[in-house]
């Protein structure tokens, strides 16, 4: 036992690797190969940026294109400045062609809008991200996640235009774009430009209707129903029920305008409230005048027409107008209520400059042109202003001028002075001063004339006073007495009718027709005894014939007595025999 404890084991170093190391080496090689294979065959990683990641869940939310799964969200986190949400998504391999500059992505979830309800299939499955591929050749892996689905692909045939508006509620994304009531496009986006203080709307008009968008088209809101109460009366326009519910925007070329050339994509247009606003917006060149009225301007509002013989030549800009006036009350009490009007050159036929228009109006005012208030609608009480010709001619003041002489003129001007002297100067050496309208607060004043509306109101009040003084109570009392007499007369008539009814029902009255019939029969038999063929008739006829023969026999005797009254006592002289006439 002691010997055994005294032995020392011999240690020998191994000069070669153990075969056991083959297993971990192979495992590491397989791991490296798997990492390489996975990295090489996995799809690209894309980054999506959005302001709100509602409904997006890491490891669950799918990315689809045409309802086919092509990727999955891996992570959802805030950006470094905490202002945005960064979404990392791993795409399936082989779909790199779908990721380019024209591709668009958005979240699909239940939505209720003007076009109806969409995304109901996500109530159970959850929200997902839809990818709409583009056709650009440049790859892209960083996208902004859209709030709503795009109306049309970026490469869709058509044209996109931008509308400018001051109304933030004029249009909404998805509203239809209408041409003659037919939907030819859609509102794609809306954005408020804070620096310029207006809204921008992007519209897409699909082909082949994009050819209708030309240089001279105008866009206006499709409200469905429009109510216009003005000096022209009440006007109501009612569109289709679909337009009334969904709204939208119309576009067309104004009547009489050429269509113009087709516009390029992203062209800008103004969005008008209605068609009337389009026409009003065409007249941007005008001369402003100030009118003072001594009568009430109740019913005169901005936008009322300024007319001449029924032709509109301008617009009421402001009623009343007290800007740039030191003492408005003093002006109103002493001069009248000021009204600002615009005479618009574009409403007049022909090319007329503003300077020429001002000269023509000043000449017309000098010869009696005045502004008068007129009633545009008895229903609404709206007023408008009309320019009428009166007999109030304004005489220009005469000023004395020094007559130029030929000696004072330059040699080149002698001919002009000689020709201009005669028409300019009268025999007294005075000439009329150039006529010019008076000014107030920097505006030219156009004279006014009374309209007679106050006189009409006074006459109406006088008529109402006369009506009020009528003896209405006496007339009503007499009417009541007349009605009582009429009622009494009706009762007497009713009693008379009852008496007649009893008389008709009497047996004697009912027997009267039978007695009359019997009397007529007896009269008929009596007349039958004197009819042709009866004995009485034959005797009477024979007697009449005998009397006729007797009268014929007495005719010669009567003729003889007529010629010789004593022929009944003495023989009458016989007439001489006729003697033949002698022959020639």
Write the layout of secondary structure elements.
Layout: H1 2-5, H2 22-41, E1 45-50, E2 62-65, E3 68-78, E4 85-91, E5 104-108, E6 111-113, E7 116-118, H3 122-125, E8 128-132, E9 142-144, E10 158-165, E11 176-179, E12 182-193, E13 198-206, E14 217-221, E15 225-230, E16 233-238, H4 241-246, E17 249-253, E18 267-272, H5 275-281, E19 286-293, E20 305-308, E21 311-318, H6 328-334, E22 337-344, H7 354-366, E23 369-375, E24 383-389, E25 398-400, H8 414-424, E26 430-432, E27 439-440, E28 443-445, H9 453-469, H10 472-505, H11 507-528, H12 535-563
Largest sheet: 8 strands, mixed
Mean pLDDT: 77
Specify the helix fraction band.
Answer: 25-40%
DSSP summary: helix tally = 12
Approximately how much beta-strand content do the residues carry?
25-35%
Structural class: alpha+beta
Overall radius of gyration: 57 Å
Q: Order the strands across the largest sheet as they lie in space.
A: 23-24-20-21-22-19-28-27
What does this protein structure show overall?
With 584 residues, the chain is of the alpha+beta class. Among the domains are: 45-146, no CATH class; 158-279, no CATH class; 283-392 and 434-458, no CATH class. It has 12 helices and 28 strands. It has an 8-stranded mixed β-sheet with strand order 23-24-20-21-22-19-28-27. The chain has a 7-stranded mixed β-sheet with strand order 5-8-2-3-4-1-9, with no helix packed on it. Residues 476-503 form a coiled coil. The chain crosses the membrane at residues 20-37. It is found in: Cell inner membrane.
């Amino acid at each position: 036992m002691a010997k055994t404890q005294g032995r020392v084991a011999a240690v020998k170093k191994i000069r070669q690797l153990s075969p056991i190391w083959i297993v971990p080496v192979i495992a590491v090689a397989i791991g490296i190969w798997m990492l390489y294979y996975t990295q090489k065959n996995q799809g690209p990683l894309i980054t999506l940026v959005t302001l709100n990641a509602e409904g997006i869940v890491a490891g669950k939310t799918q990315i689809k294109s045409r309802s086919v799964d092509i990727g999955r969200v891996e992570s959802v986190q805030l950006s470094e400045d905490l202002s945005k949400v960064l979404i990392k998504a791993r795409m399936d391999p082989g779909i790199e062609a779908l990721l380019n500059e024209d591709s668009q992505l958005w979240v699909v979830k239940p939505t209720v809008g003007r076009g109806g309800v969409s995304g109901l299939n996500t109530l159970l499955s959850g929200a997902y991200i839809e990818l709409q591929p583009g056709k650009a050749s440049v790859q892209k892996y960083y996208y902004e996640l859209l709030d709503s689905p795009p109306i049309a692909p970026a490469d869709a045939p058509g044209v996109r235009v931008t509308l400018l508006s001051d109304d933030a509620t004029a249009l909404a994304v998805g509203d239809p774009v209408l041409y003659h009531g037919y939907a030819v496009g859609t509102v794609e986006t809306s954005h408020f430009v804070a620096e310029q203080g207006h809204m921008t709307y992007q519209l897409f008009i699909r082909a082949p209707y994009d050819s209708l968008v030309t240089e001279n088209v105008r866009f206006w809101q499709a409200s469905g129903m429009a109510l216009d109460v003005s000096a022209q009366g009440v006007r109501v326009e009612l569109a289709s029920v679909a337009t009334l519910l969904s709204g939208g925007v119309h576009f067309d070329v104004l009547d009489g305008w050429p269509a113009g050339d087709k516009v390029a994509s992203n062209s800008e247009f103004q969005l008008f409230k209605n068609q009337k606003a389009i026409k009003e917006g065409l007249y941007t060149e005008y001369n402003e005048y100030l009118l003072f009225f001594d009568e009430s301007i109740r019913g005169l509002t901005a936008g009322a027409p300024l007319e001449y013989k029924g032709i509109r030549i301008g617009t009421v800009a402001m009623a009343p107008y007290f800007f740039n006036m030191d003492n408005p009350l003093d002006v109103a009490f002493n001069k009248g209520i000021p009204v600002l009007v615009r005479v618009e050159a574009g409403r007049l036929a022909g090319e007329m400059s503003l300077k020429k228009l001002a000269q023509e109006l000043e000449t017309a005012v000098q010869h009696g042109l005045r502004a008068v208030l007129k009633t545009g609608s008895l229903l609404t009480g709206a007023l408008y202003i009309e320019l009428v010709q009166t007999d109030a001619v304004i005489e220009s003041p005469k000023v004395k001028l020094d007559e130029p002489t030929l000696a004072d003129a330059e040699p080149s001007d002698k001919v002009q002075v000689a020709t201009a002297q005669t028409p300019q100067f009268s025999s007294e050496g005075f000439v009329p001063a150039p006529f010019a309208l008076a000014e107030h607060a920097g505006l030219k004043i156009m004279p006014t004339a009374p309209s007679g509306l106050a006189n009409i109101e006074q006459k109406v009040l006088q008529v109402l006073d006369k009506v009020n003084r009528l003896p209405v109570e006496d007339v009503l009392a007499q009417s009541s007495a007349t009605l009582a007499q009429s009622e009494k007369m009706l009762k007497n008539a009713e009693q008379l009718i009852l008496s007649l009814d009893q008389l008709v029902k009497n047996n004697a009255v009912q027997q009267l027709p039978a007695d009359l019939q019997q009397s007529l029969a007896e009269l008929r038999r009596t007349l039958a005894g004197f009819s042709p063929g009866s004995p009485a008739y034959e005797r009477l006829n024979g007697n009449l014939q005998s009397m006729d023969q007797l009268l014929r026999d007495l005719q010669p005797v009567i003729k003889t007595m007529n010629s010789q009254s004593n022929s009944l006592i003495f023989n009458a002289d016989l007439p001489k025999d006729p003697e033949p006439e002698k022959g020639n």
